[in-house]
Amino acid sequence: MNIKPMLLISTLLVGSIALLPCQEVIAKENQTVHTKQVKKDKKHPMMRQFKKMAKHLQLSDEQKVKVKAIFEQAKASSGAQRESMKGFKEQVKSLMESPVFDDKAFNELHSQYQTKFTEMALLKAKNKHAILQVLTTEQREKFMKFNMRSKMKHRG
């Protein structure tokens, strides 16, 4: 009678050892799915931000449609701005790589792009205003707190 419990224990032990590689494969597949989702979110930061905001503010379906349209419009209008900023960043990078920093060259470069900076700030303000017009008073307060927290996170 002592053989049956030992046989049962050994069978369970061998079976669990045999399943270990399967568990690793399943874990890797789950991790891959999660990694793909993270990569997808990184490609579309505005949509990730929209989803977070919609959840946090508990937007109605109608509000979600309106705010999503604002985000889409912002994405379309910021495309040209983004290209312009690439040129600015490349030029700043070349200034940073020089052995001696040239204050005059940086100030000239900055003044050349000043109108672009103003346009971008105006676009951002218009989009924020449009979003605030869709929200209720309570949601506006939450939105402002949400934005302040996000700004504090990015500042470190």
Provide structural commentary.
The protein has helices at 3-43, 45-57, 61-97, 103-112, 114-134, 137-155. By secondary structure, it is mainly α. It has 2 domains: 1-43; 45-155. The longest helix is centred in the first third of the chain and has 41 residues, at 3-43. The N and C termini lie far apart (67 Å). The mean pLDDT is 79.
Helix-strand blueprint:
Layout: H1 3-43, H2 45-57, H3 61-97, H4 103-112, H5 114-134, H6 137-155
Helix pairs in contact: 2-3, 3-4, 3-5
Helix content: over 70%
Order of helices and strands: HHHHHH
Mean pLDDT across the residues is 79
Number of domains: 2
Which descriptors would you attach to this protein?
single chain, 156 residues, mainly alpha, 0% strand
Summarize it.
The chain is an all-alpha fold and 156 residues long. It has helices spanning 3-43, 45-57, 61-97, 103-112, 114-134, 137-155.
